[in-house]
Amino acid sequence: MPQVPQRILAISGSLRRSSINSAVLRAAASAAARDGAMVVIDDSVRGLPHFDPDLEIEPPEPVLRFRAACEEAAGVLLAVPEYTFGIPGSFKNALDWTVGSGSLYRKPITLLDVAAQGRGARVREALDLVLRAHGADVARYSLPVARNDRDAAGEVDSPRVINELRAVVAELAKRSSAAHESSTDR
Ligand SMILES: Cc1cc2nc3c(=O)[nH]c(=O)nc-3n(C[C@H](O)[C@H](O)[C@H](O)COP(=O)(O)O)c2cc1C
User: Fold this and answer.
1) Could you tell me the pTM of the whole model?
2) 113 Cα–ligand 1 center, Å
3) Which of 45, 78, 83, 111 to mutate to test the pocket of ligand 1 (most atoms within 8 A of CB)?
4) Which CATH superfamily is domain 7-184 in?
């Protein structure tokens, strides 16, 4: 029987139209599709209400959809910029909504770090801490993306970056399969 590819959720921590992080995730999704892997971009971050524990009793619809997308994904690929030495507020807000539901618990996550060398150290540290608090299984991959790795429309067209993205997705898919197998063994 042909194997259905596992779904990997890709979430950008930037809302900017010409975001480097979002462009890299789009490139990862296209490259993965050519390899028969499934990377689905999720842009729920933009539409989530402010986190409020009082709303946990009856979570708003966008929150339920975002939680379900995280829970159903075999793995999660994140690309998050550093804002003022930390995690962008809108993205941290999305993470906060997944605490009560445990949607990222034991989830294989790859943090894709596209910042130039010497940049982004603080958001890496912050994300490591926060995602470990979620109980996620976190790996990090450094892939600096420069202006000349993108075409005039801002899409990533560098063969080097695209090849590395294919390897990142393949590795995450492998970790996701292993996590799935060990959860069905339990
Ligand atoms: C409000 C704001 C704060 C920023 N703070 C930092 C920072 O503390 N450290 C850093 O390395 N870059 C910082 N940057 C630069 C961004 O991380 C960088 O431009 C990144 O590429 C933005 O990601 P995007 O292209 O996906 O939107 C900041 C940018 C903005 C808009």
Assistant:
1) 0.96
2) 12
3) 83
4) Flavodoxin domain (3.40.50.360)
